[in-house]
Each structure stands twice: as C-alpha cells, then as structure tokens.
Amino acid sequence: MWSIIACLSTGLGILACRLWWRRRYVESERRLAEFKQAASIYREEQESESLRREAHLQALINSMIEGFLLVNSEGRIQAVNDSLLRLFNIKHELIGKTLMEGFRLRELPELNERVAREIRVRGVEIELLGLDHRTIEVNASAILNEAKQQQGAIFTFHDTTRLKNLENTRREFVANVSHELRTPLTLIKGFVETLLDGAKNDPVVATRFLQTIDKHTDRLTFLIDDLLTISKLESAQIVLNPVPIDIFSAVERAFDDLQTKAAERQTTLINSVDKQFRCWVDGDRIQQVLFNLVENAIKYGRVDGKVRVVAKLGRDQFLDISVNDDGPGIPAESKERVFERFYRIDRARSRDQGGTGLGLSIVKHIVQSHGGEVWVESNLGQGSSFHFTAPLVNNVSAVGNQN
Ligand code: ADP
Q1: Of 43-47, 188-192, 375-379, 396-400, minimum mean pLDDT range
Q2: Distance (Å) from CA 391 to ligand 1 centroid
Q3: Are 355 and 184 in contact (CB under 8 A)?
Q4: Which CATH architecture has domain 240-403?
Q5: Confidence of residue 131 (pLDDT cuts 50, 70, 90)
Q6: Is residue 357 lining ligand 1, measured as CB closer than 6 Å?
Q7: Distance (Å) from CA 158 to ligand 1 centroid
Q8: Nearest to 388 by CA among 373, 377, 378, 376
Q9: Fewer Cβ in 10 A, N or C end of the chain?
Q10: Side-chain half-sphere exposure of 348, counting CA atoms within 13 A
Q11: Atom of ligand 1 nearest to the CA of 354
Q12: How does pLDDT run across 229-246, given as a tens digit for each residue?
C-alpha cells in the first residue's frame, strides 16, 4: 500500500515538474516571439526613419539653386541634385561613375585631388564651351572622419555667366564713356592752347576755333544728358506715367523741335499718322522716342531728302509706328547692333552730326518698358524704316479698322 502511494506521489511529482517546465517553455517561447516582433518593428522603424532622412536630404539638396555633388574616397559619384544635372545639361546616370566618366571635364578630377591636399578649395572657375558658353564657379570641401581621414568630398556649382557678362558690359561701358568724354575734351584743350599760343590774334581763325570748341562742348552736353537718361532708365528712377496720347500730335511736336535741323539739311518732314490713333504711353518718354528716331532720320538721311512717319495697326492691340528715310540704309550685320550702346556704323559721321551713340539704346529701353518692340527694316542704298510698337488705347483698334 505504501509503495503504491510512493509510486503515485513520484508520478504526480514528475507530472507537476513536466507541467511546470512546459509552462516555462511556452512562456519563454512567447517572450521570444514578442522580442522578435519588437525587434522587427524597431528594425522597420529604423529603416523607414533612415529612408525618411534620405528623402529629406535629397529634397534639401534638390531645393538648392547651386549644383551639388558628393563623391566617395575613391572619387566615385554618390549623390547629385537636379540643379547640377540642369547646369551641365546631363541626361545620363552619374551615380557610381568617376568624375571624368560623368562630366568629361579634366578640371573636376584635378579639383578632387586638390581637395585631398588642401581640404577646402574655393572659387575655381570652369568654362563650359559649347553653344551657350557658360562660366561655372565651383567650391569643394573634403569630408573627414573623426580620425581626420578623408571619406569623400562635396562640390557646389554656381552659374556665374550672367554676373560675368554684366561685369564685362559694365567694364566696356565705363571704357566707352571715358573714351567718349576724353575725345571732345582733348580737342577743346588743343584748340584753346592754339588760341592762347597766338591764334586768338587772328579774328578769322579765332572765330573758326571757337565755333569748333562750341560744337564739342555741345557734344559733351548731349553725351552727359544721354548718360543721365540711361542711368535713370536703368535704375528705374523714372516711373512711367501712361496716359492716352494722340500719336499724330506727338509726331508734330517732334517735327517742331527738329525744324532747324531739318532745314539745315533741306529735309522734308511728312506726318502720315492717322489722327485717330491714340496710345496708352508716358507722353514725355514717347516724345523722346519719336525725337531720337526722327533726328536720326534727318542726320543719316539724304540731304534734300524726305522723312515720313507712318502708323498702322500691329499685333495684339499695339500700334506699329515707323520712321522712314531715304538715306544710305543699314547693312544687314548692323541691324541688331545699332540698338547697342555706343555702336555706330560710321563713327566719324555720327560724331560729326553730334551723335552720342546712345540714342537708339534709349529708344529700345523706353519702348520695351511699355511692353513694345523695336526693329529696323532696311536695304542698303534704299533708306531705313525704324519701327516701334506701343499699346493702343482700348477701342482704338476698332476705330483704326474702320479706316
Ligand atoms: P548716334 O548718336 O550715333 O546717332 P544712335 O544710337 O542714335 O547713335 O544710332 C546708332 C547708329 O545707328 C548711328 O551711329 C548710325 O550709324 C546708325 N543709324 C541710326 N539711325 C540711322 C538711320 N536712320 N540711317 C542710317 N543709319 C542710322
């Protein structure tokens, strides 16, 4: 009996033990599964966090106006932004390529070598030859780890073409202005010295010299006036005040102002503008446009010739006004260039006529600031037609169509 009880209690003990172990096993399995799940959630979170960070970083570098490029320690491209692709007009894949393979510019691998030596390189200029010749400024910095070993490099690219062109234009302008001011001044000084040296005692010579001095001081005044006008137009100091302007009357006023000049060259001035055309323009500025164009037509037109102003309806509610002369005309290669500052076809002739070389650039500036266009039509030996367009007062196009 006792042995049966002992056997039973041992059996029960073993069963209890097994149950206890089983529960512990199940419990640890459950914990392990929980742990695995937590680990996988954590890993997923880490991955999506790093993807999010990468996306933020890419968005950040893509929002840069400058081109951006990252290379690793072997000089292979790891990241680029959209601005860089646009700047170099690159359509092919760059990631993983060397700088030479990616850009075909020896300056970039050379710069990468310099960065390895100097850690930071600033303001290296690269000229991109091709259809649109451009200048790019590159800055580069090495990426160093805690042990100061290079891990790669970052390059930023800035298109400086516009700045460079502006700087060249400014330099050219200053050189031209200095030259234009110096020429009459040198002549005036020469004549004054000759007068002082004795020429003043001969009334005929003295009068001739004084007339020449007078002509050159006039030239200086015209030049300074035109320079001030250009400077005001460019610095937007002149605020346009558009009002409805009757174009026929504006042409008449320009003719009145230029009567003496026209008489000197026996030029006949003809106003063929329809009296009903009215434009929405700044009166003083448009007067200046007409004055400059009619003055040129008289200056460069034939002696005893005709200057005619005509207006017709143009595109998009603009009036096309043209000043026509019967002078020598303009060679094809100069048609665009006459609107540049200080460009003259015949420098001596322009100077002789008191020209500053700025009249047409002022015209272009004013016309464009009214939203219009300016151009010249001409055949050599057959005169010139200088056209400009000005916005019509709303219903004038209807009035014009009826005529
Ligand atoms: P300028 O003071 O020399 O007249 P503009 O800017 O008014 O300067 O004109 C630039 C150049 O364009 C002139 O020097 C002249 O060579 C040429 N030009 C302008 N108008 C005419 C015209 N009607 N006929 C022929 N050439 C012209």
Answers
A1: 396-400
A2: 25
A3: no
A4: 2-Layer Sandwich (3.30)
A5: low
A6: yes
A7: 39
A8: 373
A9: N
A10: 0
A11: 2
A12: 988 888 877 788 999 999
Q: Which two tokens stand for residue 222?
A: 């015209």
Residue with tokens 């060397």: 98
- 64-159 is classed CATH 1.10.3720.10: no
What is the pLDDT, as a whole number, of residue 273? Answer: 97
Contacts by residues 371-375 (CB-CB < 8 Å, ≥ 24 positions apart): 372/318, 374/339, 375/335
What distance in angstroms lies between residue 296's CA and the mean position of ligand 1's atoms?
6
Verify whether ligand 1 is closer than 6 Å to residue 164 (CB atom).
no
Burial of 381 by CB count in 10 Å (0-12 exposed, 13-18 middle, 19+ buried)?
Answer: exposed
Token pair in block for residue 8:
């039973």
CA of 259 to the centre of ligand 1 (A): 19
Closest residue by CA, ligand 1 atom 13? 344
pLDDT at site 238: 73
Q: Cα(352) to centroid of ligand 1, in Å?
A: 12
Residues 326, 348: Cα–Cα separation, whole Å? 20
Ligand 1 atom closest to the Cα of residue 327 is 24
The domain ranges of the chain are 1-60, 64-159, 240-403
**Residue owning the nearest CA to atom 23 of ligand 1:** 297
Fold agreement between 64-159 and 240-403: no
SS3 state of residue 373: coil
Distance CA(19)–CA(30), nearest Å, equals 16
Across residues 308-315, what is the average pLDDT?
95
230 Cβ closer than 6 Å to some ligand 1 atom: no
How much is the pLDDT for 60? 85
Query: Which residue owns the Cα nearest ligand 1 atom 24?
Result: 300
How remote is the CA of residue 347 from the centroid of ligand 1, in Å? 9
Lowest mean pLDDT across 18-27, 91-100, 188-197, 283-292: 18-27
> pLDDT by residue (tens digit) across 335-368?
999 999 999 998 887 877 778 899 999 999 999 9
